[in-house]
Design a protein that fits this description.
The chain is mostly helical and 83 residues long. 84% of the residues lie in helices and 0% in strands.
Length: 83
């Protein structure tokens, strides 16, 4: 009985460690994606002088979408749609 409880606790601990590893790994990719997207928007806005405003929706789109989110914002800006 005691061996089953100890084995169960070891398995539970391994599952928690593995889950934490997966969460931290996905957070790292999200942060890198967000930084790259916002950096591209900042550079495009500064160099080309596009005049895209930094609203919370623009920043959130670039942060979540990364490079693709930034391209979406740029395409919408060129089409005349302001977010």
């Amino acid at each position: 009985m005691v061996i089953m409880i100890e084995t169960g606790l070891i398995v539970l601990g391994l599952v928690i460690i593995f889950g934490a590893f997966l969460i931290l790994k996905s957070i790292k990719h999200f942060v890198v994606n967000a930084v790259v997207g916002l950096l591209i928007l900042f550079v495009a806005n500064s160099v080309a002088g596009l005049g895209i405003g930094y609203s919370w929706l623009v920043i959130l789109t670039c942060a979540i979408g990364g490079t693709l989110g930034t391209i979406l914002i740029l395409v919408l800006h060129f089409m005349g749609i302001v977010i």
